[in-house]
Design goal:
Blueprint (H helix, E strand, L loop, with lengths): L1 E12 L2 E13 L4 E5 L6 H8 L7 E6 L2 E2 L5 H11 E4 L11 H11 L5 H14 L15 H13 L5 E5 L7 H18 L2 E5 L3 H6 L2 E6 L2 E7 L1 H5 L1
Parallel strand pairs: 3-8, 3-9, 6-7, 7-8
Antiparallel strand pairs: 1-2, 1-4, 4-5, 9-10
Helix pairs in contact: 3-4, 3-5, 4-5, 5-6
The structure holds adenosine-5'-diphosphate and magnesium ion (MG).
The site of magnesium ion (MG) has 4 residues, from helix 1.
């Protein structure tokens, strides 16, 4: 489903070229619940952003659903991302002036040219799935952090992506709320067979994934399938 070969990422910082990822290759299979772990600054977000089409590698190629995304121009890449990928962020990134309902509907208006009736069906189904239906007319400032992340999850899923990337999705939540959010993502992964790719420090996510990839200084130092992955 995802195949990345010899990825390199160089950031230009003032006069300096900073090589953050060098020669990283990885394959991710359909339906995997997988996490990158590793110290802060080890390159987790950089890798997620490249695999998730938010950023482009300096060298190397990335194939997603048999499409080499490094061959696409900016507009094509944005369209590809809209069709195939959902993204969940640590800080939720909801649009403050839109309601819960409108935040979830937004990608459908921006990316997929769906009829209003079909949009409504999709948004309402997801509102129910993430337990936010009764809050649909509130703006983000009127709901809690856990509720904001539920909305962000629904927004990531509304286009029916095959792959969802989640960068530290529980880092701004208390542990009980984080637990509920993880359970929600597990349920969604099972029901939709969505591939979930995390970057996290959260032990509770680590306990729940099928596969753990440890990054240190931009290198994969360990790539293991967990017990959950082998037995389920
Ligand atoms: P992690 O998500 O594991 O904390 P990041 O991918 O955010 O790691 O960062 C990896 C390294 O790249 C760090 O040294 C960070 O300072 C650097 N870095 C990340 N983004 C940028 C950027 N936009 N410009 C310059 N350096 C960056
Ligand atoms: Mg990060």
């Amino acid at each position: 489903m995802i195949k990345a070969n010899n990825l390199k990422k160089v950031y230009r910082v003032g006069e300096l070229d900073l090589t953050v990822i060098d020669n990283l290759s990885i394959s991710i299979n359909e339906g995997e619940f997988i996490s990158f772990i590793g110290p802060s600054g080890s390159g987790k977000s950089t890798v997620l952003n490249m695999l998730g089409c938010l950023d482009t590698p300096t060298f190397g190629d990335i194939e997603i659903n048999s499409q080499d995304i490094t061959k696409l121009n900016k507009t094509q890449l944005a369209n590809f991302r809209g069709e195939h990928i959902g993204f969940i962020f640590q800080s939720f990134n909801l649009i403050p002036v839109l309601t819960v309902y409108e935040n979830i509907e937004y990608p459908l208006i921006m990316i997929q040219n769906l009829a209003e009736e079909e949009r409504k069906l999709r948004v309402e189904k997801l509102l129910k799935e993430v337990g936010m239906f009764e809050h649909k007319d509130k703006t983000p400032d009127k709901i809690s952090g856990g509720q904001m992340q539920r909305v962000a999850i629904a927004r990531a899923l509304v286009t029916n992506p095959k792959i969802v990337f989640a960068d530290e999705p529980t880092a701004n939540l208390d542990s009980k709320t984080a637990h509920m959010i993880i359970e929600l993502m597990k349920k969604i992964q099972k029901e939709h067979n969505t591939t979930f790719v995390f970057a996290t420090h959260d032990e509770k996510i680590v306990e729940n994934v099928d596969r753990l990839i440890t990054l240190v200084d931009g290198n994969i130092v360990e790539d293991v399938y967990t017990k959950r992955g082998q037995h389920e």
